Amino acid sequence: MSDTRRRVKVYTLNEDRQWDDRGTGHVSSTYVEELKGMSLLVRAESDGSLLLESKINPNTAYQKQQDTLIVWSEAENYDLALSFQEKAGCDEIWEKICQVQGKDPSVEVTQDLIDESEEERFEEMPETSHLIDLPTCELNKLEEIADLVTSVLSSPIRREKLALALENEGYIKKLLQLFQACENLENTEGLHHLYEIIRGILFLNKATLFEVMFSDECIMDVVGCLEYDPALAQPKRHREFLTKTAKFKEVIPITDSELRQKIHQTYRVQYIQDIILPTPSVFEENFLSTLTSFIFFNKVEIVSMLQEDEKFLSEVFAQLTDEATDDDKRRELVNFFKEFCAFSQTLQPQNRDAFFKTLAKLGILPALEIVMGMDDLQVRSAATDIFSYLVEFSPSMVREFVMQEAQQSDDDILLINVVIEQMICDTDPELGGAVQLMGLLRTLIDPENMLATTNKTEKSEFLNFFYNHCMHVLTAPLLTNTSEDKCEKDNYQTAQLLALILELLTFCVEHHTYHIKNYIMNKDLLRRVLVLMNSKHTFLALCALRFMRRIIGLKDEFYNRYITKGNLFEPVINALLDNGTRYNLLNSAVIELFEFIRVEDIKSLTAHIVENFYKALESIEYVQTFKGLKTKYEQEKDRQSQKLNSVPSILRSNRFRRDAKALEEDEEMWFNEDEEEEGKAVVAPVEKSKPEDDFPDSYEKFMETKKAKESEDKENLPKRTSSGGFKFTFSHSTSAANGTNSTNSKSVVAQTSPASSNGSSSKPTNLTSSVTATKGSLVGLVDYPDDEEEDEEEETSPRKRPRLGS
């Protein structure tokens, strides 16, 4: 029992005057040696760590609010609050505080902390040693009362004494009776004084006074007083708005009268704070902190009371998903949930967790799926806001729901596809709703917030689901609009939508390496995206370019080969040339792309650009990027040429094999036959079993082979492919490294198929030039699974590469 009674939440007030939850624990009051006094200690119920250690200072002002709250300030800008689960626990701690300070526990507030000089000054003034004497509450005394209230605001101790005097004498209710009299008599001067008095009482920042002022009996008269601002020519009509314009809608009748009263009170107090009173920054920082706390704790209480009433929530869900519910009713139900979720943000994390789990259990996600597909714009907008609360709270919960749903439903009605379709079909010219939905989608597909457990990996499961069931819906507008290699629609709204889709795809390139790579290759997506470089909307062309830049930024040879084979630099270079001499963002972005390739020295792309586009680009001299690319290209050519000349020709004749053991017998025979045709490059001395008598013959054959290979070396310069590109041959000696006979080493060449010696391939295959020697065979450090396919293409290709020497 004591555990529950002493159970508290610890709150601190942040810079924005909002209460931050510091955790839940159990409070005790004990003597702490280090602090040399009785102190309040709160230990976390989760791990026993210390959440709060606060000495009960004899001069600190503690306030007891709403029977279960104790609030105080530890420093000028550091406010603390303890919210008790039970009133009994609050009373116990309050008694301890009052005992230390020598106060009667029946008071709701102890004294304020003031500096010594101020205290001495007031002690010298006999009229302040007791409670402030208030003038009698009469019409002719209103000016005097207003001056008194205004004068005490600068002094903490006088504010406190005035608050006690107002409370003890029931003064506020007397003032409000005077207000009614003044209004009946149309006494404008008296009404202006009452405005100053009521506003000043609010700035006393005392919870006990708020409870009187915001009661059902008094609150409308308080609002009435605040209508008569002397600075305004005509009074505002706040009461008319609150009673006639603002209507309280009960989507399902609330039977709990206390809950109804709390909802009305919170709305009206929030209205006073947000609409009637000036912004707090105009006044001292802490003037309205208690008012903020009053609203905050009211909201916590409302959410808790509603959440505990499962019958009420079940009825709301039943009506929300019932097909018979009319549109107006459904709109009100959705708006109620939106407001409900907004209030839930005041809950501490554990309670918020329980709140959203309750909603999930009752079926919030299937309900949202229905209402997000409705025609009513207001309903869709409110449903999107609710969905955003859920995604922000727990992306994993939403992901789990959609993956379970996929096993029972068609792709068209999956929640994520409904969200994507809402994004695509947003009718707002500025696509406000689409931007919000795109942000939610990005959160859902972000691997950073996906959980990995021992049994399953959420990332792989969800991304498999997303690419199989949802990606085609997301890319449909993009693929449809670029089907004929030109932009089908190029209006502003379509361009905005495509830019959003591209932003999401660019995010995928950065975070989903494997899945998005397969998707881009299979759909030839980059080619379609680059069609948008022709758009009249520069921002869309830049989005397309950014997509390509992210791909190139990965420095992935799969992507690089895809780009060079598809000649995908052409639309980018055309856009640069079409842009002419204009020095704009497009110009800078394209040049930055090529500069990145130059600085990072991406050899395959450098060779492709120089061989195919240098003539078109050499006239651009205001940057050194393209000349730099040409220089890099020529340096690489020279380097390879030198390597070819420095390696003995006997090594160059051997074939590169990724793994000799992996070759099948028929391939082995085929290689041997081919080697015999090429001049029997495998030398005889390797075979130690041969008689020494045969050595002269073998040597003669070796010398003949060497001469033949030296003449062939002259032809092994970079060879132009049938498409006009160059192909390089890379050879490295590994005999020194592996300590074996040079004849046991294999040369590493850029072509892997036997047909390459005859120049039969027009498709360059880029392999790593690094090799690892293992037991006389070489294994490439990078092994691309599609190399075999390219080998087959090279074998069957009928085209011949023209040799430079012929």
Automatic annotation (TrEMBL):
SUPFAM superfamilies: ARM repeat, PH domain-like
GO cellular component term of the entry, any: nuclear speck
Residues covered by the Serine/threonine-protein phosphatase 4 regulatory subunit 3-like central domain: 144-635
Molecular function terms, GO-annotated: protein phosphatase activator activity
Domain of life of the native organism: Eukaryota
Gene Ontology BP, a term: positive regulation of gluconeogenesis
Region of interest (Disordered), ranges: 668-806
Entries under InterPro entries matching the protein: ARM-like (IPR011989), ARM-type_fold (IPR016024), EVH1_PP4R3 (IPR055236), P4R3-like_central_dom (IPR006887), PH-like_dom_sf (IPR011993), PP4R3-like (IPR051137)
Bias (Basic and acidic residues) ranges: 687-718
Biased composition (Acidic residues): 668-678, 784-795
Low complexity composition-biased segments: 753-762
Entry-linked Pfam families: EVH1_PP4R3, PP4R3
Stretches with biased composition (Polar residues): 719-752, 763-775
Residues covered by the PP4R3 EVH1-like domain: 5-101
Family of this protein: Belongs to the SMEK family.
Protein name: Protein phosphatase 4 regulatory subunit 3B
Organism the protein comes from: Oryctolagus cuniculus
Originating gene: PPP4R3B
